[in-house]
Write a structure and sequence with these properties.
By secondary structure, the protein is of the alpha+beta class. The protein has 2 domains: about 160 residues, no CATH class; about 140 residues. It contains 13 helices and 6 strands. It has a 4-stranded mixed β-sheet, with helices on both faces. The longest helix is centred in the middle third of the chain and has 28 residues. The two termini are about 35 Å apart.
Length: about 325
Amino acid sequence: MKGLELSRAYYQEYGAPMLKERFPALIDFLAVGLVGEGSECMGFDDEVSQDHDFEPGFVVFLPGEEIIDRRTAFALERAYAALPGEYEGIRRCSISPVGGTRHGVLRTDAFFRDKCGAPDGCLSLQQWLQVPEQSLAEATGGEVFCDPYGEVTKIRERLAYFPEDIRRKKLAGALLIMAQSGQYNYTRCLQHGETAAAQLAVIEFVKSTMTAVFLLNEVYQPYYKWAFRKMRILPRLSLLAELLEYLITSDNDGENAREKQNVIEGIAADVIDELMDQELTRAVCQDLEKHAYSVNDGVRDSTVRNMHILAGI
């Protein structure tokens, strides 16, 4: 059973009855789900995932103390802790995972302040530039099983994706690094005999290409170890994942180096085609640097537009 299914079933069998029986007056103010860190929130968990921080559990989100006071919240924490310690043959963790609690009773404002810096999810354009994309993926991923109060759902809707100016700013930066690392520095490093530096250039190109692909799909890029897996199921440019994997898993000798440069240019061409399809660039060429500045020119907010082109990276 996948982690999200396990969480939902555990909540329905034990969590929901506990809340209904012991805290009936609170139900209309709570939200329950599996949201935050962990591969199970993305549906990427497997047998390997169960070796740590994997358990039957869920999150109960509480509004502020003006609605549910500390004493009541503490009683709810104790009730959650008393739920069955094993479900479907999987035991609940006896200690909190590294990085903090993933399940249990949490204040809504504290959770979202931790993820995006704002308890209500209201961010300025400058704040949007500073929030790690991985954190936004965690804040908006997973599933909310119920939310009669609606607070958690509204915040997640506010954070659903970057404002368009921020998407463009981040995309411009990613395109510029793609140009510098892949279209320029890779071959120059090889000409200098710096094969290790050449591979670093390839890695920078791959990382920036993945950033660009997620931005072009308007999907948050998750934690790096899941980025390839997520990219392979995106609707646009997902086939590039195989080529990017080839670039970082092959050496830079002789024919390989020439082939890798051809692959880099092919990837650049595919990304440029997508930029044109989405009408994000006015440049007409195969130079990603020119497209980067054209995308940046499309940022409407003058303050954001006039920031350094790499401000969103």
